[in-house]
Task: inverse folding
């Protein structure tokens, strides 16, 4: 059996505003190394909420979350920040690049924060990641000089910089046109097959989900189906 | 490493909003500039006004007051030792306001380590005779060298050389006011009459101007020897011994001690001029209050700009947090922004404040009552600059810490999901 990298144990989550609504009802599942999984469901089914809980950014829930077999419960804010820094890469619907910095620097920032290797090493590593994504030529431009698809690829490079345990995506293709969405998907697929990168992508795009290796379907806060295709 | 990264991010955010940053920094610069200039000017003015009186007032004055004997003859009589004494209409006995054994006392005071300097004085009440008119006057017999050492006498002698008092016999330095009333020029002779009727002609070798016209109309200076001659007294006749101490605060204590030891009356500067200290104190308080108000206003400016910056940079804060920056890191970034505004604004403010002080110091300020002052007074004190520097950092820190804390509390999920 492969090692579990992410495990949700009976996660419950309530929204208190304006009335108490149970958005997640006893979610339990786990993800193994190298899996390329997607979570699909109608909007409002709680799939994004689940992702943010899994990402450690939302700590207001019941149940337990284990990343790399370590419980995330009772961890301090700074410790969680370190976990996100080291083990999780994020790709959001919006790119969230900092216009004050060059593309290269945007990619470098999380690794600089980790501070484990020298600046030169970080820089060459960032170039390497940009190369994987085919945008090494744009490294010295400012993010606002890039197209939407290119920006999203920079965001993916940023997610990859610390060689995370898992990449989490919240509708990463949601803002992109068909062609760019396909490019981004191909990148994800390549990362999964070539680099054995684990990925967990939330999407409402069924075409996108159908191409992933594992589809977790959600409805009204519960997992209704969990299908793995070949691998 | 981490701190360097945080500073790097802070400066990048600053550069992106540099015009706003500049406005905030100018606010701090302006307030520090005014703070320094105001305090230096106020303090200079205080020194000037206090100096007008205090510099010429001895810290301790020893004198012999004419007063009735404490023990009347009947009390000394053995015969009435156990009786009650009812004595009415007591008068002081005829005795001169002379300090007995003055030479020995002065010698002893010279050796006292707490005493900075000693200057003897002979006080003579006189009339200046102008034609048929007699003007009242006070002549101080002084030792010019000692007087200059203790009270910067030379500064107030507007014409002539104060040392001439010792060189030219029967010479006088006349108060400017008195001289103008009597229409006397340098080199003229003035006739003075003492209370006892003795007359003496004195040669005017200079003029004296203190800035206080009442004093200038009354007082004149001669040497100790001339004053003794005027009174027909011997060379150990001294009426006052003026003392300057190393530590002015000790004056009341030492006054009591000397009073007891030498059996004299003693007056300390605090008792003689208490109102001056009160005045300076209030003026200082006012300038500090104005300076701090300016800084607080600048602080609000920084607070506003940082708040705006945080709203603008919500996305950046969210992604920084998502990619592993903790709330503390984000807080440090915004504190660094605020503090760099404070430090930059503060340093330029200190420089400009010095410049403005210099400028005020160059501005002509001439007034007849203050012969030694040619420009507006400025007191340069490193302490003001220290206070200004510390204040600029503290206010910007406080102004920055609230928005910074807000930034650290930003919930990335809310921002990211809101899109």
Result:
């Amino acid at each position: 059996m492969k090692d579990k990298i992410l495990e949700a144990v009976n996660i419950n989550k309530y929204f208190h505003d304006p009335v108490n609504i149970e958005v997640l009802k006893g979610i339990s599942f786990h993800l193994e190394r190298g899996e390329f999984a997607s979570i699909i469901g109608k909007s409002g089914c709680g799939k994004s909420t689940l992702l943010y809980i899994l990402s450690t950014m939302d700590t207001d829930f019941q149940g337990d979350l284990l990343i790399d077999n370590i419980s995330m419960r009772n961890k301090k804010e700074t410790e969680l920040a370190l976990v996100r820094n080291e083990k999780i890469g994020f790709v959001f619907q919006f790119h969230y690049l900092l216009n004050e910095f060059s593309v290269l620097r945007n990619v470098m920032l999380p690794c600089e924060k980790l501070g484990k290797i020298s600046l030169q090493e970080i820089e060459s590593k960032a170039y390497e990641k940009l190369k994987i994504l085919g945008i090494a030529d744009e490294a010295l431009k400012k993010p606002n000089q890039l197209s939407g698809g290119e920006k999203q690829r920079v965001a993916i490079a940023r997610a990859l910089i610390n060689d995370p345990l898992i990449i989490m995506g919240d509708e990463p293709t949601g803002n992109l046109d068909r062609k760019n969405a396909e490019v981004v998907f191909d990148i994800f697929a390549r990362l999964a097959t070539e680099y054995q990168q684990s990925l967990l992508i939330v999407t409402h795009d069924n075409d996108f989900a159908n191409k992933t290796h594992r589809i977790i379907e959600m409805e009204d806060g519960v997992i209704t189906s969990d299908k793995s295709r070949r691998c | 490493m981490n701190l360097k990264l945080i500073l790097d991010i802070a400066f990048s955010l600053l550069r992106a909003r540099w015009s706003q940053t500049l406005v905030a920094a100018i606010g701090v610069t302006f307030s520090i500039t005014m703070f320094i200039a105001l305090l230096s000017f106020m303090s200079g003015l205080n020194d000037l006004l206090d100096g007008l009186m205090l510099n010429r007032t001895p810290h301790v004055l020893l004198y012999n007051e004419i007063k009735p004997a404490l023990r009347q003859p009947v009390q000394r009589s053995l015969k009435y030792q156990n009786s009650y004494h009812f004595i009415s209409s007591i008068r002081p006995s005829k005795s001169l306001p002379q300090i007995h054994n003055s030479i020995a006392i002065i010698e002893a005071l010279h050796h006292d380590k707490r005493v900075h300097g000693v200057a003897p004085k002979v006080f003579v009440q006189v009339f200046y005779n102008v034609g048929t008119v007699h003007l009242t006057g006070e002549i101080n017999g002084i030792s010019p060298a000692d007087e200059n050492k203790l009270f910067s006498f030379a500064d107030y002698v507007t014409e002539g050389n104060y040392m001439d008092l010792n060189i030219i016999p029967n010479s006088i330095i006349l108060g400017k006011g008195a001289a103008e009333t009597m229409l006397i020029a340098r080199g003229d002779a003035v006739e003075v009459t003492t209370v006892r009727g003795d007359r003496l002609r004195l040669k005017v070798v200079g003029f004296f101007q203190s800035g206080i016209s009442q004093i200038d109309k009354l007082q004149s200076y001669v040497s100790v020897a001339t004053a003794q001659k005027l009174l027909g007294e011997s060379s150990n006749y001294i009426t006052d011994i003026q003392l300057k101490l190393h530590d002015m605060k000790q004056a009341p204590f030492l006054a009591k001690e000397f009073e007891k030891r030498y059996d004299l009356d003693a007056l300390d500067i605090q008792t003689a001029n208490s109102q001056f200290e009160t005045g300076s104190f209030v003026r200082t308080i006012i300038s500090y209050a104005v300076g701090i108000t300016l800084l607080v206003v600048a602080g609000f400016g920084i607070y506003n700009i940082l708040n705006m910056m945080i709203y603008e940079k919500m996305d950046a804060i969210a992604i920084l947090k998502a990619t592993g920056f903790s709330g503390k890191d984000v807080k440090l970034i915004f504190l660094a922004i605020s503090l760099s505004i404070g430090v930059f604004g503060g340093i330029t403010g200190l420089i400009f404040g010095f410049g403005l002080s210099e400028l005020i110091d160059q501005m002509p300020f001439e007034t007849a009552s203050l012969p030694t002052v040619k420009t507006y007074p400025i007191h340069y004190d490193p302490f003001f600059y220290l206070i200004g520097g510390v204040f600029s950092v503290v206010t910007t820190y406080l102004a920055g810490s609230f928005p910074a804390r807000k930034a650290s509390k930003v919930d990335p999920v809310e921002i990211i999901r809101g899109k």
In short: The mean pLDDT of chain A is 87. Residues 4-228 of chain A form a domain with the Rossmann fold fold (CATH 3.40.50.300). Chain A has one domain: 4-228. The beta strands of chain A are 4-15, 21-32, 36-40, 62-67, 70-71, 88-91, 166-170, 198-202, 214-219, 222-228.
